[in-house]
């Protein structure tokens, strides 16, 4: 069963995404007044029943979660970020996305997206990029809110970080529901 996150069928094409993302560099410095959102995905088996969640620091509210069965952990990590950014569209300032997913974070910090788009959605091994459907949506959300207003930061998972533990628990609960 596929989640309906309310995306239109028309996602920017690769050339439009590449142009928009190159036009305005991604933010790298987190201002003190940034909105911090933690995101996580979980799967019981991979593939298996999946869940995703996000929550605003420091209180954990607002937050959101959902599920997809069957799914993969990577898809759930992506769904969490997409839904968080869509839900926070009204925030005009910088949003810092904190994730324990190197898959999500490195796409932006290491600019994987640039190579993917330049190579026509092929990775460095010239194979199709996994989860292209979700990456297209995520990149479009970053472009829409403004690359200069979106920062991605990696946090270590299962390390006792209260907000990361909260979104992990919400994602696991969503996957189990």
Task: Provide structural commentary.
With 177 residues, the chain is α/β, with parallel strands linked by helices. It has a single domain (14-176), classed as Ribonuclease H-like superfamily/Ribonuclease H (Nucleotidyltransferase, domain 5, 2-Layer Sandwich), CATH 3.30.420. 39% of the residues lie in helices and 21% in strands. It contains six helices and five strands. A five-stranded mixed beta sheet has the order 3-2-1-4-5, with helices on both faces. A hairpin with a 4-residue loop joins strand 1 (35-43) and strand 2. The longest helix has 15 residues, at 73-87. It is globular. It starts with 13 loop residues before the first helix and ends with a helix. 38% of the residues are buried. Mean pLDDT is 88; it is low at 1-10.
Q: What's the topology here?
A:
Elements: H1 14-23, E1 35-43, E2 48-56, E3 63-71, H2 73-87, E4 95-99, H3 102-109, H4 112-118, H5 132-145, E5 150-154, H6 162-176
Parallel strand pairs: 1-4, 4-5
Antiparallel strand pairs: 1-2, 2-3
């Amino acid at each position: 069963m596929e989640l309906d996150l309310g995306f239109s069928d028309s996602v920017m094409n690769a050339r439009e995404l590449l142009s928009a993302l190159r036009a305005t560099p991604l933010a790298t410095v987190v201002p003190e007044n940034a909105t911090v959102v933690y995101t996580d995905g979980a799967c019981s088996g991979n593939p298996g029943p999946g869940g995703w969640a996000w929550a605003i620091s420091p209180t954990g509210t607002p937050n959101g979660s959902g599920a997809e069965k069957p799914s993969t952990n990577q898809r759930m990590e992506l769904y969490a970020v997409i839904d968080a950014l869509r839900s926070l569209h009204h925030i005009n300032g910088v949003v810092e996305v904190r994730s324990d997913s190197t898959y999500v974070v490195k796409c932006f910090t290491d600019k994987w997206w640039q190579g993917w788009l330049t190579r026509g959605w092929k990775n460095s091994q010239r194979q199709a990029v996994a989860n292209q459907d979700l990456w297209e949506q995520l990149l479009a959300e970053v472009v829409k809110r403004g690359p200069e207003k979106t920062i991605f930061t990696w946090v270590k998972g299962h390390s006792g970080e209260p907000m990361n533990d909260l979104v992990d628990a919400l994602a696991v609960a969503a996957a189990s529901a």
